[in-house]
Amino acid sequence: MTNAQNFSLQAELDATEAWDDNDELDLADIDSDLVDDGSGTDPEDDPTLGAMDLAERHQLRRVAGLRTELEDITEVEYRQLRLERVVLVGVWTEGTIEDAENSMAELALLAETAGSEVLEAIYQRRQNPDPATYVGRGKVEAIREIVQATGADTVICDGELAPSQLRNLEDRVKVKVVDRTALILDIFAQHAKSKEGKAQVELAQLNYMKQRLRGWGGNLSRQAGGRAAGGEGIGGRGPGETKIETDRRRINDRIAKLRRELKALEGTRATMRQERRRNEVPSVAIAGYTNAGKSSLLNRLTGAGVLVEDALFATLDPTTRRTTTADGRVYTMSDTVGFVRHLPHQLVEAFRSTLEEVAESDLIVHVVDGSHPDPEGQLSAVREVLAEIGAGDLPELVMINKIDAADPLTVTRLLRNEPHSVAVSAHTGEGIDEAIKAVEADLPRPGVAFDALVPYARGDLIDRIHKDGEIRSMEHTADGTRVAGLATEALASDLAAYAV
Question: Is 415 left (phi over 0), alpha (psi -120 to 50) or beta?
C-alpha cells in the first residue's frame, strides 16, 4: 500500500514520452534506408535473367543423407535418384601420370556437378580396359572393399562401358555402376531448359539407354500377349513378344518423335540463320572447353546477362546477342555448349543442329582456361570436336581467359604457342578492350567499293552504310552527302543510282 500511495499517474506518463521520440527516430532511420537516393538501382532489385536462372537452379538440389539402392521389386529395376556417395574408377592406358590425374580430377568435377559426393578415387595402369569388368579382377575386389568401407552406393567409371561390363561390374561390387557418358547425360538433363535443349538431351539419353536395357532375373525376357499376365500384353505385337522387345520398340517410337520435333525446330533456327546471311550480318561463335568462361565473356563483351556458374556444362542452350563495332557495323555473338574430353557421340549427334551455329559462323572465338592444369589438352579436345562438326577450317581467335588466377608463365607459353591469341580476364575485365579490337579486326569486311552522292532525303541509306558498310570518307555538300567506302553487294546495288 505504501507504493500505491507514492504512485503518480502524471509522472509515469511524462517518463514514457521519451519512448515515442526513440520510436520515431528508429522509423525515420529505417525509412531513410528504404528510400532510393537516386544514385542508382540496386542490382538485387533488378536481377538479370541469368541471375534468376542460377537462383532457381540452386533451389533444386538432391537430398543429402539418402542412398541409392538396387532393389528387386518383381517388375523393373528400381533405382531411386538420391544424393549418391560415389567412388571413381579409371583406367590409364596412354599418356603421362599427369594426364591420368587430370582425367580423374575432371571426372570428380563432373560427379560433383551432378550432385554427388566423391568419397574415393582409384585408377589402374593397363594397356587396354578389361573386356569383362573394365578393370582387372584384383581391382574389382579392391573396389568392392572400398565400397563396403566407405558406404558408397555408386561407382563411376571414367570411360564408356559396354552393357556387359556394366552388368558384370554391378554383380561384383553390389552397387550401381555408371560410366562417364551416363554421368554427362545426367548433367545435361539437369541443366536443359529450352524445349529444343530438353528434346536433344532426351534423344541422347534414349539412344544410350536403348542398348543397355536390362532387368532383374527374367523379368524383361518373359512373354506376355493378349490377355496373358492380366492384360500386360495389350499394345504389344501378340504372344511371343518379350517385355524387353516392347520397351525397345517404345523407345524407338519416342526417338522417331523427338527427331521429328528437332527437325521442325531446326527449320526455325535455319530460317534465322538465313535471315542473317541475307542481310550479310557477320556472326561470331564463342566455343571452348566447359567451364572456360564462355558465358562470362559473352556478358563482358555484349552485356547479355546470361547465367554464369562455376560448374561444368552450366550453359546448354545457345544465346545470341546483337552488338556493334566501334565504327558502327552490326554483328552477332553466340554462346555455345561447352566441350569436354571424350564427348559422347550421342550428344554430338543430338546437338548437331545447335553446333551448326558454330559451323555457320564467320569467326570462332576459342576460349581456353589459362588457370587449368592442362590448357593445351583443352585446346586439342575442342578442336577435335570442331573438326568433327565441319568447323575446323574457320577463322579462329584464341582467348586465354582467367589470367587473374593463372600462372603468368603458362599464359606466356600459350601466347607464344598460339600466335593469334589474346589474354583476358572476364572476372576483372583485364584485356577486354584488346579482345574486342581483335574480334572486330577479324570480322569479314564488305568487299564492294562505292563512291556516291546520297540526297539528304535518303537518310536511310546513310544509316545502312553505318551499319553494314565501312566509311572511308564523308562530306556534306549542297546537293547531298558524298560518301566513299566499302559496302555489301545488296547495299552497293542500292547506292548504284547515286554513284558519282
Answer: alpha
User: Is the separation of the CB atoms in 383 and 392 below 8 Å?
Assistant: yes
Question: Which helix (H) or strand (E) segment is 85 a member of?
Answer: strand 85-92
Q: Under a CB-based contact definition with an 8 Å cutoff, are residues 293 and 402 in contact?
A: yes
Partners of 154 in beta bridges = 86, 176
CA distance linking residue 264 with residue 269, whole number of Å: 9
pLDDT at 17: 65
Classify residue 88 as exposed, middle or buried by CB count within 10 Å of its CB (0-12, 13-18, 19+): buried
Torsion on CA atoms 436, 438, 441, 444, rounded to nearest 10? -80
Predicted TM-score (pTM) above 0.85: no
- Strand bridging mode 283-288 / 319-324: unpaired
Please give the pLDDT value at position 249: 85
CB of 286 within 8 A of CB of 334?
yes
**3-state class of 485 per DSSP?**
strand
From the list 273, 271, 317, the residue with the least C-alpha distance to 298 is 317
Residues lower than pLDDT 50 in the chain = 1-2, 23-44, 62-82, 216-219, 225-232
